[in-house]
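PROTEIN DESIGN WORKSHEET
SECTION A - STRUCTURE
LENGTH: 400
TOKENS:
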């Protein structure tokens, strides 16, 4: 950053989607990304010059595609057969998604020799996809904390409900995947043991709690993060198993990328070599944001960022400018400058109204919103000035 221009600086944090070529398995995308960013600095259309501690975000699917990190339905079923050689198996609290879970369920059903009891939470799944009208539940005599319903009982009480975005009837869609699938609706994990003591915990963010409850109750338990999570020369794998996987085609799924931090460190080093700038790098998946209209969370990945460089650890070290200004009306500018200087040496830097959040969650959500999932062609995002502060424009410290 050119410090001579700080007095004339009017732009704070800014974000740029970077257009990339279509890549294929085996491509060295760290080199591709670095070359594109160098070319962007020299572009006559809209030059993008990297500065110290700018952030380079790379969408997880870009890395996973280059890694060839795919599995088939048969790969899933083979792993399931090893884990559950005999008997019925329950699938506990999956999200309602054609893209995220339907193919995983197909692989599970193919690998289980007995019945597959798909146990859905109600009135919504973990990320807010509705399976019924919540007002109808409120006006019924059903207790969602204690009552268990079969598909037939649920239909008799609440009828058919179509997803507000896709129009899908997820209950019927999941049941139609395989003849050995049977749908149940419940919210207490222990009620699953009335069906079978073999369980695949399919929740995402509550998976650790659900696993612990079921294991303590005597069940044989695996999670989606335990399926295809070991290095295998015959197919893809991920530390997160099939959590974070996405539909690829009728027989394959793309997994969450593996070894994400190692990739980030490699790209960080390469950028330093090519530009002499010390940047931060992160892999990002779903952002942690919610649709106000449908109440559905975007966050269907196990984490926002499966890998990042060290400078993105922790939470922002920030004051609440408007709160300081409101409490120092005689000379707000001086009070803000004083507060920014003092926060650098203190630990208790949060002011009323600030919400502690991880930097990776904040920046990853910003990157995800910028990239989207359509045809922009920008799987790489550069965030500039994120660590600047109002006083100097020089990057500030973070608290671990």
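SECTION B - SEQUENCE
RESIDUE ASSIGNMENT:
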């Amino acid at each position: 950053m050119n410090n001579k221009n700080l007095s004339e600086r009017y732009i704070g944090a800014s974000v740029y989607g970077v257009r990339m070529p279509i890549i294929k398995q085996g491509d060295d995308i760290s080199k591709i990304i670095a070359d594109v960013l160098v070319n962007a600095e020299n572009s006559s259309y809209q030059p993008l010059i990297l500065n110290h501690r700018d952030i380079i975000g790379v969408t997880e699917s870009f890395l996973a595609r280059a890694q060839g990190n795919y599995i088939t339905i048969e790969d899933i079923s083979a792993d399931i057969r090893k884990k559950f050689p005999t008997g019925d198996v329950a699938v506990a609290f999956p999200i309602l998604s054609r893209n995220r879970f339907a193919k995983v369920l197909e692989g599970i059903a193919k690998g289980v020799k007995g019945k597959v009891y798909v146990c859905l939470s109600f009135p919504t799944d973990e990320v807010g996809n509705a399976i019924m009208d919540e007002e109808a539940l409120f006006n019924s005599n059903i207790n969602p904390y204690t009552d268990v319903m079969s598909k037939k009982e649920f239909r008799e009480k609440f009828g058919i409900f179509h997803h507000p975005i896709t129009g899908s009837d997820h209950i019927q869609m999941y049941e139609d995947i395989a003849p050995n699938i049977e749908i149940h609706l419940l919210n207490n994990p222990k009620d699953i043991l009335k069906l079978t003591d073999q369980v695949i915990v399919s929740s995402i963010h509550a998976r650790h709690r659900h696993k612990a409850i079921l294991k303590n109750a005597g069940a044989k338990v695996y999670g989606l993060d335990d399926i295809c999570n070991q290095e295998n020369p015959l197919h893809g794998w991920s530390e997160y198993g099939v959590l974070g996987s996405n539909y690829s085609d009728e027989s394959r799924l793309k997994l969450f990328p593996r070894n994400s931090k190692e990739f980030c460190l490699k790209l960080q080093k390469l950028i330093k070599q090519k530009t002499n700038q010390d940047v931060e790098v992160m892999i990002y998946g779903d952002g942690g944001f919610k649709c106000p209209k449908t109440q559905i969370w975007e966050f269907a990945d196990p984490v926002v960022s499966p890998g990042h460089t060290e400078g993105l650890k922790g939470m922002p070290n920030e004051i609440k400018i408007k709160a300081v200004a409101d409490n120092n009306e005689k000379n707000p500018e001086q009070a803000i400058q004083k507060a920014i200087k003092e926060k650098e040496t203190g630990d208790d830097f949060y002011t009323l109204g600030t919400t502690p959040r991880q930097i990776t969650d904040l920046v990853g959500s910003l990157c995800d919103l910028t990239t989207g999932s359509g045809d922009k062609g920008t799987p790489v995002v550069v965030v500039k000035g994120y660590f600047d502060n109002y006083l100097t424009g020089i990057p500030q410290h973070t608290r671990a």
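SECTION C - NOTES
The mean pLDDT is 90.
The longest strand covers residues 14-18.
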